[in-house]
Amino acid sequence: MLKNLLALLLLCLISFSCSNSLKTQSNSDISGIKIGMSKEDTTKRLQEIGKIDREERKQQEIWTLNNDPHYSHLIVAFDKEKQKVRFITAKARENGNRVRYGDVIDIGKAQLTSSANNYKYTQDVQASESNPAYIRIASGTDSNYLNYFSLKELNSSEEESEEDEKD
């Protein structure tokens, strides 16, 4: 009886620590990449954890992550003037450790937009001494687990010029 109780307690502790493993990471970065980070520092970090897949237009790079249990790819975009990160998107790894929306975003404070099998949580994050203001976005086709997680700088000049191009 005591053995079973100890085994159950150990199992609960392990599952609790696993479910909170993403929460121990900084809320202002994805895999060590932050909004406003220099291109040089970003590239150095990305070379440690993956390899570049391709470069896209509008200062975007797609990286394949080597051993991340949660994410398979990162898409990173830089602003033209300062060469600093303006957005980051992580793609959930298929058959990897699934990421719950609540692991990366405060569901109670986030705005939910959903339609048939599409869920999108967005949450504004105010600027601080170490971070500019940004939006945290978690989206997917499952009601519990995300497919994509993004951090996007608020009021970036590229965002404004992209809006102008749409008009």
Condensed summary:
The protein is an alpha+beta fold. The chain is built from four helices and ten strands; from the N terminus they run αββαββββαββββα. The strands form two sheets. An eight-stranded antiparallel beta sheet has the order 3-4-5-6-10-9-8-7, covered by helices on one side. It has a two-stranded antiparallel sheet with strand order 1-2.
Structure description:
With 167 residues, the protein is of the alpha+beta class. The protein has one domain. 26% of the residues lie in helices and 35% in strands. The chain has 4 helices and 10 strands, in the order αββαββββαββββα. The protein has helices at 2-19, 39-49, 101-104, 157-166; strands spanning 29-30, 33-34, 50-56, 60-65, 71-78, 85-92, 111-115, 118-125, 134-140, 148-153. The strands form 2 sheets. It has an 8-stranded antiparallel β-sheet, with helices on one face. The longest helix has 18 residues, at 2-19. The chain is globular, with a radius of gyration of 18 Å. The protein starts with a helix and ends with a helix. The model is unreliable at 5-25 and 158-167 (pLDDT under 50).
